[in-house]
Amino acid sequence: MDINTASALRRLRLVSIPEAVSFLLLIVCSVLKRTTDFNAVPAMGAIHGLLFILYVLFWLDAWNRTKWQLKTAALYFVLSVLPAGGFFADRKLKQEAEAAVIASRARREGVVNA
Q1: Torsion sign (Cα): 28, 33, 38, 40
Q2: Structural domain count of the chain
Q3: Which letter, b or e, does each residue of 17-46 get, where b requires 16 or more Cβ atoms within 10 Å of its Cβ?
Q4: What is the predicted pLDDT for the residue at 1?
Q5: What is the domain extent for residue 39?
Q6: Is residue 114 domain-resident?
Q7: Full DSSP string of the chain
Q8: For 16, which of 11, 75, 77, 89 could close a Cys bridge (C-beta 3.0–4.6 Å)?
Q9: pTM metric for this prediction
Q10: How far apart are CA 110 and CA 37, in angstroms?
């Protein structure tokens, strides 16, 4: 894995958790808006919208750099539209990055998969 690919995965991981938290908070704010006089939906909606746009941009960059299959790329996108999907995306991206680092080190040291 080259440095640009690792950076793309890292950026996607860094935005996945805040995007998921903002989505959950937006749901809470929506419920509070309908049950109380508290209305934080406009502010929380703007924050979540920005984080979602960043997630999609970083997802496109990671897809372009990693050359994911359509199935893998679609999974990461679907995780972005599920309320807690960002937590699962972070975990899967961490595993993928660790596996890529191990494979890169093995290639560099001349270890061949038997």
Answers
A1: positive
A2: 1
A3: ebbbbbbeebeebeeeeeeeeeeeeeebee
A4: 66
A5: 3-109
A6: no
A7: --HHHHHHHHHHHHHHHHHHHHHHHHHHHHHHHHHSS---HHHHHHHHHHHHHHHHHHHHHHHHHHT--HHHHHHHHHHHHSTTHHHHHHHHHHHHHHHHHHHHHHHHHT----
A8: 89
A9: 0.84
A10: 65
